[in-house]
């Protein structure tokens, strides 16, 4: 799976930041062929983000917002079920010099009327030339209806008994202090 993310935010030192973001995913395999001809997901975010210093070495990061999901390439029988997903979310992370624990909650108010939560730990490693590497491990679960929305079984039936696990390695690059 290939994905990309871009955001634009207006930052104020005292009040935090307001922003918009776009997340896009394309499935490079055929693993979801029961539900989709190809996986093309576009997520549109509006968010508020702020940080609060707890000590010289730790801060509490907070984010809340709304997400609109758009799926392209769905088989006709799934199109009406997926194409209007909308969620509100909140997330917190305790950022420090070693490991950053984080927790996030989502509530789909349009399709599932149900919640999903995940938490995990990540570590940011700054490399030369403005490159950042961030391994992240998360686990989560949610209400049956939300899980059915996230993880349909690959034979075309819906099964909401799956718990979420992700191990990822993110790579970032800052062009300057702002981009």
Counting H and I runs of at least 4 residues, what is the number of helices? 2
Mean pLDDT: 80
Structural class: mainly beta
Strands, count: 10
Major β-sheet, in short? Answer: 10 strands, antiparallel
The end-to-end span amounts to: 25 Å
Low-confidence stretches: none
**For the CA atoms, what is the radius of gyration?**
18 Å
> What is the percent of helical residues?
under 10%
> What does the overall shape look like?
globular
Strand percentage: over 45%
- SSE string, helices as H and strands as E: EEEEHEEEEEHE
Layout of strands and helices, then pairs:
Elements: E1 2-12, E2 16-26, E3 36-53, E4 59-74, H1 76-82, E5 86-95, E6 100-108, E7 114-122, E8 125-126, E9 131-142, H2 144-150, E10 164-173
Antiparallel strand pairs: 1-2, 2-3, 3-4, 4-5, 5-6, 6-7, 7-9, 8-9, 9-10
Explain this structure.
The protein has 179 residues and is mainly beta. The protein is built from 2 helices and 10 strands. It has helices at 76-82, 144-150, and strands at 2-12, 16-26, 36-53, 59-74, 86-95, 100-108, 114-122, 125-126, 131-142, 164-173. Strands 1, 2, 3, 4, 5, 6, 7, 8, 9 and 10 form a 10-stranded antiparallel β-sheet that branches. The model has no long low-confidence stretch (mean pLDDT 80).
């Amino acid at each position: 799976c290939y994905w990309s993310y871009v955001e634009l935010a207006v930052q104020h030192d005292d009040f935090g930041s307001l922003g918009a973001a776009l997340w896009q995913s394309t499935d490079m395999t055929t693993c979801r062929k029961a539900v989709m001809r190809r996986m093309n997901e576009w997520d549109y975010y509006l968010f508020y983000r702020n940080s609060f210093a707890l000590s010289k070495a730790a801060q509490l990061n907070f984010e809340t917002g709304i997400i609109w999901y758009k799926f392209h390439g769905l088989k006709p029988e799934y199109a009406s079920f997926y194409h209007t997903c909308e969620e509100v979310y909140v997330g917190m992370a305790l950022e420090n010099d070693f490991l950053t624990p984080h927790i996030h909650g989502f509530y789909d108010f349009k399709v599932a009327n149900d919640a999903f939560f995940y938490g995990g730990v990540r570590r940011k490693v700054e490399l030369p030339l403005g490159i950042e590497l961030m391994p992240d491990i998360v686990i989560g679960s949610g209400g049956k209806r939300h899980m059915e929305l996230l993880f349909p079984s690959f034979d075309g039936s819906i099964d909401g008994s799956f718990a979420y696990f992700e191990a990822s390695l993110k790579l970032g690059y800052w062009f300057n202090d702002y981009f």
